[in-house]
Amino acid sequence: MHILSRLERLDLLESWLKSDEPLVLKHAANELGVSLRTINRDIEILRERGVPVEADRGRGGGVRLQSTWGVGRVNLTFEEVIDLLIGLAIGEHQHHAIQMAKANSIRRKLLASFSHPDQRRINSLRDRIRTGATSSSVVISSLEADGIQVGDQLKRAFFLMRAIEIEYTDGQGAISARTVEPHYLVHNPPVWYVMCWDRLRNDIRTFRCDRIDNACVIDEQFALRPWVEFARTMEGNDTERI
Predict the structure, then answer these.
(1) Of 42, 60, 138, 237, which residue has the fewest beta carbons closer than 10 angstroms?
(2) Rounded to whole angstroms, how far apart are CA atoms 26 and 43?
């Protein structure tokens, strides 16, 4: 049986409290394989960390969070942080429809998860996402209703400006292997495209994100090419920065 470290116990106890499940100390001690005295010490450490734990006299020696306690520290995965940053970029663009008064504060806290070089790259995000005209009914009809368009590997490569190996299925069903640099994301509602520099063809190529499979980020940084180099491929599809 794995013996939990104190840090592991503290994380479990904090999660237990935040779940709003009853936390009776003697039951917690039995479940975690430690003494009641040890659990009491762990609870004191949580209090010192700022977790507002108080006695719950109605639960047989249990504890709970203060009723006024709200949002605490939130642990997010890399992919969750990326999704939030994309949402912020889109929300700020549509400021006429939704006010994002705390967007800068939220972004700063999210960016703290990244290294300084990556932070500088991510700060250019708003310039690298564009929106265009609504997709045609023919294009929309070929889109899976519940499918994920922009996968985690593509988002990672796009954010950190790293090359990515992909398999791409074109409109005729032909599959090709590519190594590309994902420079810009373009949203023709509801379809997402990624505008890339294709290393094999040594030219710009646009890919529908939902047709990208088996993506794998490679550890090769690329320098962002200016939008003007890609704009010529968007003739007839006016886009604006988001």
Answers:
(1) 138
(2) 12
Q: What is the pLDDT of residues 10-45, one digit of tens each?
A: 888 887 877 766 788 888 888 888 999 999 999 888
3-state SS class at 109: helix
φ and ψ at 175, to 5 degrees?
A: -110, 135
Taking CB atoms within 8 Å and a gap of at least 24, the contacts of 134-138 are: 134/188, 134/189, 135/188, 135/189, 135/190, 135/191
What mean pLDDT, rounded, does the chain reach?
A: 81
Higher pLDDT, 34 or 240: 34
Q: How far apart are CA 86 and CA 96, in angstroms?
A: 18
pTM (whole model) above 0.85: no
Phi, psi of 195 (to 5 degrees): -100, 120
> Regarding predicted confidence, which is higher, 193 or 125?
193
DSSP string, 154-214: HHHHHHHTEEEEEEEE-TTS-EEEEEEEEEEEEEETTEEEEEEEETTTTEEEEEEGGGEEE
Q: Find the helix or strand (DSSP H, E) in which 65 lies.
A: strand 62-65
Q: What percent helix, strand, coil does the chain show, rounded to 5? A: 40, 25, 35
Q: How many CB atoms lie within 10 A of CB 117?
A: 11
Rounded-to-integer distance, Cα 218 and Cα 115, Å = 18
- Which single residue is written with the structure tokens 């949002």? 71
Q: Which CATH number fits domain 6-65: 2.60.120.760, 1.10.10.10, 3.30.2130.30, 3.40.50.720?
A: 1.10.10.10
Tokens describing residue 185: 């994301």
